C-alpha cells in the first residue's frame, strides 16, 4: 500500500512540475535559448566583445537575484531598522572593484584599447538628480538594476517602474541643456588630483568611514550586528539555485564590473539605454529627438541612429533581465503563479518612482550603478556626491512608501 501511495505521489509531483501552472522547465529553456542565441547573434553581427558583454550582463542579473543584492532595500533597512548589512556589502564591493580599477584607470588602456572611468561634473544637476532618484527608488521599490532584475524575477511592479523610467529619461533629454548650464565644478578624479597613493587612501578612508558609521549605529540600536542567516538546503546545487550571501554577491558584482571595464573600455552602466529606448519609441510617432541637446553628443547621436543591438548598455540590460529570469527559475520562483494584480496606489507609486529615477539619472550622469557604483570605483567625486544626496532622497521616499501601499 505504501509503495502505491509513493508511486502516486511521484506521478503527481511530475504532473505538477510539467503542468502549465508550474512552467519552470519551459522558462529555463527559454532563458537559455535567448541568452545563448543572443550571444551568438551579437558575435556574428557586432563583435565578440559585444557578445561577451551580453554574457556579463546575464551574469550580473543572475548574481543580483541569487544574492538578493538590492541597493534600495539595503538603504531602506538601515533607515527604518538601522540594519546595515546591505550597505556594508556595498562598501566591500566598492573596495574590491577599486583595487582592480585603479591600475587600469592610471594606465588608461588595456589590450590595445582605451580605458576610462565615469568621472563627471559635480554641481546642481548631480545634487538634484541624485536626490529625486533617491525618492524614486523607494517609490518604485527598486533602483535601476533592481527594476531589471525584479522583472526577470517575476515582479510585475517592475514593469510599471520601467515604463516610468523610460518616460522620465525622455523628458529629461528634452531640456538637458538647462541642467548642464547650472553651476558646477569640473570633473574631479581622486587618483588624478591626489596621485595613486593619495587618491586610493582617501577612497579607502571614505569607504571605511561609511562602513564604521553604519556598524556603530546598528550596534547602538541592536547591541550587535544583524546578519541574514541563509539556511541553504540545496547543497552543491546552491551554486545555481541559490540563495547566496550578500558578501558573495558583492565580490562577484565587483569582478563583473572590472571585466566590463576591460572588455568595453568603460564601467557598467544601465540607464542611458532607457533614454535611447524612449527616443526610438517617440520617433515612431514622428518626433525628432535629434533636435534635443542631449543627442548633440556624437556618441549618443550615433547610438540613436544605429540598431539597438549595437548599443552596449542595451544588450547588457536585456541580458540582465534574462539572467535574473534564469536564476529565478532555478530558484523555483515560477513554481508559483505570478501575481499580476496590484493595489492601484502601488502601481501609481511605481510609475511616479520610475519617472523620478529616469529624470534624475539623466541629470546626475547615472543611477545607482553608473553614478554610485561605477562612479565611486572610478574614483570620481561625483559618485560620492551622488551617494549622499540619493540617500537623503531615500529618507523622504521611505516616508512616502506607506501611501503607495508598500509594507516596509
Structure description:
This protein is mostly helical and 408 residues long. 70% of the residues lie in helices and 2% in strands. It has helices at residues 2-18, 24-45, 48-66, 71-81, 85-107, 124-139, 144-152, 157-174, 176-180, 190-193, 195-222, 238-241, 246-264, 272-283, 298-305, 312-330, 344-363, 368-377, 381-400; strands at 109-110, 113-114, 122-123, 184-185. The strands form two sheets. The chain has a two-stranded antiparallel sheet with strand order 1-2. A two-stranded antiparallel sheet has the order 3-4. Helix 6 (124-139) packs parallel to helix 19. The termini are far apart.
Task: Pick out its properties.
single chain, 408 residues, mainly alpha, two-stranded antiparallel ribbon, 70% helix, disordered N terminus
Helical amount: 55-70%
- The percentage of residues in β strands lies in under 5%
Along the chain, the helix and strand elements come as HHHHHEEEHHHHEHHHHHHHHHH
Low-confidence stretches: 1-20
Rounded Rg? 22 Å
How many E strands?
Answer: 4
Q: What's the number of helices?
A: 19
The neighbouring-strand order within the major sheet is: 1-2
Distance from N terminus to C terminus (CA atoms, Å) equals 49 Å
Shape descriptor reads globular
Mean pLDDT: 92
Structural class: mainly alpha
Main beta sheet: strand number and arrangement? 2 strands, antiparallel
